[in-house]
Design brief:
CATH topology of chain A: Rossmann fold
Bound molecules: adenosine-5'-diphosphate, magnesium ion
Order of helices and strands of chain A: HHEEEHEEHEHHHEHEHEE
CATH architecture of chain A: 3-Layer(aba) Sandwich
Oligomer: heterodimer
Number of strands of chain B: 9
Distance between the termini of chain B: 28 Å
Shape of chain B: elongated
Structural class of chain A: alpha/beta
Strand order of the largest sheet of chain A: 6-7-8-3-9-10
CATH class of chain A: Alpha Beta
CATH superfamily of chain A: P-loop containing nucleotide triphosphate hydrolases
Helix content of chain A: 25-40%
Chain lengths: 269, 452
């Protein structure tokens, strides 16, 4: 496997986040050995939280390249800033400094509305605690991103088709007999499958998964992971997977570790 | 698109939203019912007054020095454009007593506390042309009260006079409001003593202060449908009136009917009449021109005022109940913090989230409005059935005929106003929902997701 920019950078032992910008080649996509286009390109991402007088620097210059169709696992101890990074990549949060391009678009300059549209269109989230809406059935939960993306007119026109697509996706995930159940009538695994369907339903280019199996037993976790990788491959989707599960991380194309507010290569042994 | 869908799902699974709908709905129903009844009451009162009084009444203030002639007054009135008829009457209050009975029955009814009646001296032929007197004579239900012949109302066959001793006495006749007759237990052919009451300053200052009394035979009753008139009026022929009250005056009031296209026109014709009197040399101390609206402005104004005050009070109450939507929404936003985060991950914009919660609040008040409209309309349409049911079940009289002069509660739905109530309610609750909705919209999605 070819090392990506951030890995190369880390190998060079760069400490100063501010110095990063100058050392990165201008055209990353043109790196030898990898012709796939970049879906995301992050440089020197900084994120700090202010707690009273204290400032906690959670991300201290993260460099990260994501190529179309690859899967990346991110590991790291609790509190390392993995979720924070995912939120930044998913445009839920804004960086304090650094730059983030999504499909070649500089997101730091986008308006709130444009960020919301890009999020709806390009990104799907899966969380540890499923985060389904309790009032809606499995089918309705999974259809929600489509509703959000549609105007009234286009929704009315495509309602039937959308419904069938989502139903088919849920059936594929083994939920054919759970379509009209509410979240509190579903098991953890079933809930996570609904959440997975919801993340996939808009055909986003990137799936951001924050410990998707963290709350499930081993066997269920394995099943979900299978489905996650299968479906992503089927649709050529890119995966960023935060996990504590080494075995799960193994299934990704490569694994990065979050330490000291930076992303680096996994320690071998 | 998702906003309407989610708002409906959020609201229609929560018992508290049904409770709020019910509260808002009840307040709106109360507002609609009160307005409808008061407005119906006002319209009915107007209609009643309208039916028992002339369009315009010219009050003639007679003085012994220069008595005003009926013919000259009527000439001025009739030549005014818009006037379709005029009829002169003599008016005087009196005390009465049933002939042959000792007591005065003082205080038996509200309108006849002192056995006071208003005695009108009329010219039946002229009345038939201008007023509804003929109808009022034929509308009497009880046979024992009906006049022999409505065309000559003051005539009664001699053998119908009940007291045989009075049959040969050639006593003058009178007509009586049917309710007064009923109250006193009289039928036609009975006899009444009428005693004049001094009615102007000149009389107090002269030796005419002594009152005069005369016995009359009741020739029958009239029924105007107006409780007050039917309870406290007596009519004599103008000749009999003059003999009884020892006056030579020909007229104390002229009832004028006009052709009307609108309410404003009434005031215009009234003005024209005043000008015409002025031009003919009558002073404002001799004639007073008033439309029926002027004459009853205190009663009509009081009813209208009461209606408006109740509307304002209940309207404010309705707006107050809208605050419930605020409370419901505030807790909803609190409860739904995590959902707000999730919606953001799916690409819902802050404005969309704000819109979603505004819609939630608006949905409650809109549903409340529907409840209120349906409930209010049902109550208004069935108000008399409800009244009867309550009266029969609990044995209380909630709508007294002797107070209100109507047998039925008059109620009138004002669809335009109801629409306005709905629009204002929805607008107002949408307005107060903006604050919690705005809070929801600008919530940080990451913090919302971390929310426990
Ligand atoms: N809103 C916040 N305010 C203050 N500190 C925060 C906030 N969000 C996260 N943090 C801190 O940032 C650090 C990284 O959090 P997070 O990204 O959730 O870690 P991970 O997902 O790797 O476990 C933690 O130490 C956490 O306490
Ligand atoms: Mg985390």
């Amino acid at each position: 496997m070819t090392p990506t920019v951030s890995e190369l950078m880390h190998d060079e032992g760069t400490d100063e986040a501010t110095a990063v910008e100058t050392r990165v080649p201008a055209d990353v996509a043109a790196l030898p050995g990898d012709g796939r286009e970049l879906v995301m390109r992050a440089r020197g991402l900084m994120r700090r939280y202010r707690m009273g007088h204290e400032v906690v620097e959670v991300l201290r210059g993260v460099d990260f390249d994501l190529r179309r169709g690859e899967s990346v696992a991110i590991m790291g101890r609790s509190g390392a800033g993995k979720s924070t990074l995912l939120h930044l990549l998913g445009l839920l949060d804004t960086v304090d400094s650094g730059s983030l391009e999504v499909e070649g678009v500089d997101t730091t300059r986008l308006s709130t509305g444009a960020r919301s549209r890009l999020r709806n269109d390009a990104v799907g989230f899966v969380f540890q605690f499923y985060h389904l809406i309790p009032e809606l059935t499995a089918l309705e939960n999974a259809m929600l991103p489509l509703r959000i993306a549609s105007s009234l007119g286009s929704w009315m026109a495509n309602r039937k088709r959308h419904r069938e697509e989502v139903r088919a996706l849920l059936v594929e995930l083994g939920l054919s007999s759970r379509l009209f159940h509410r979240p509190n009538q579903l098991s953890g695994g079933e809930r996570q499958r609904v959440a997975l369907a919801r993340a996939l339903v808009n055909r986003p280019r990137v799936l951001l998964c924050d410990e998707p199996t963290g709350n499930l037993d081993e066997r269920t976790a394995e099943g979900i992971a299978d489905q996650l990788f299968d479906l992503a491959q089927e649709h050529g989707q890119t995966i960023v997977l935060v996990t504590h599960d080494g075995e799960l991380a193994q299934r990704a194309d490569r694994t990065l570790v979050m330490t000291e507010g930076r992303l680096g290569l996994q320690d071998e042994g | 698109m998702y906003k309407v869908f989610l708002a409906r799902r959020y609201m229609f699974v929560r018992p508290v939203s049904y409770l709020s709908m019910l509260v808002i709905g009840s307040a709106i129903a109360a507002l609609i019912v009160v307005w409808s009844v008061m407005d119906g009451f006002l319209a009915e009162t107007r209609e009643l007054i309208r039916g028992t009084t002339a369009d315009i009444v010219v009050t003639v203030l007679q003085s012994p020095e220069e008595p005003l002639e009926r013919a000259s007054l009527e000439r001025v009135i009739r030549s005014t454009p818009g006037v379709t008829g005029a009829v002169s009457r003599l008016v005087r209050p009196a005390i009465f007593k049933v002939h042959g009975r000792d007591n005065l029955n003082i205080g038996t009814t509200m309108w006849a506390d002192l056995n006071m009646v208003l005695v009108l001296g009329i010219d039946a032929e002229a009345e038939f042309e201008v007023t509804d007197l003929r109808d009022h004579l034929t509308e009497v239900d009880l046979e024992s009260q009906q006049v022999d012949d409505p065309d000559t109302p003051f005539k009664i066959a001699r053998n119908r006079i009940l007291d045989r001793r009075l049959r040969m006495a050639a006593l003058p006749r009178l007509l009586m409001g049917w309710e007064l007759m009923d109250q006193l237990g009289l039928s036609k052919g009975d006899a009444i003593d009428l005693v004049t009451v001094p009615d102007n300053v000149a009389m107090f200052e002269s030796d005419q202060l002594s009152s005069s009394s005369e016995t009359f035979i009741v020739a029958g009753a009239f029924s105007t449908g107006h409780h007050e008139s039917d309870m406290s009026r007596i009519m004599l022929s103008s000749d009999a009136f003059r003999r009884w009250s020892k006056t030579f005056h020909e007229v104390s009031e002229v009832y004028v009917s006009v052709a009307l296209d609108g309410v404003d026109e009434l005031a215009a014709i009234r003005g024209d009449l005043e000008a015409a009197f002025d031009a003919a040399g009558f002073t404002s101390r001799q004639v007073i021109v008033e439309s029926w609206r002027d004459r009853h402005r205190i009663l009509l104004g009081a009813v209208e005022n009461e209606r408006n005050i109740l509307f304002i009070v209940l309207g404010m109450f309705v707006l107050l109940t809208c605050l419930i939507t605020f409370a419901v929404l505030w807790t909803l936003v609190q409860e739904k913090t995590r959902d707000i985060g999730i919606l953001s991950t799916m690409g819902a914009a802050p404005l969309g989230v704000g819109g979603l919660f505004t819609l939630c609040g608006t949905l409650i008040s809109a549903a409340g409005c529907v409840v209120g409209l349906v409930l209010g309309t049902l109550i208004v349409v069935n108000v008399n059935a409800i009244k009867d049911w309550i009266e029969n079940t609990f044995g209380v009289e909630i709508f007294r005929r002797d107070v209100y002069a109507f047998t039925e509660i008059p109620a009138k739905l004002d669809h335009g106003l109801n629409l306005m109530i709905v629009v204002v309610t929805i607008f107002f609750s949408a307005l107060i929902c903006l604050w919690p909705a705005w809070r929801a919209g600008r919530m940080n999605p990451v913090e919302a997701l971390r929310h426990e």
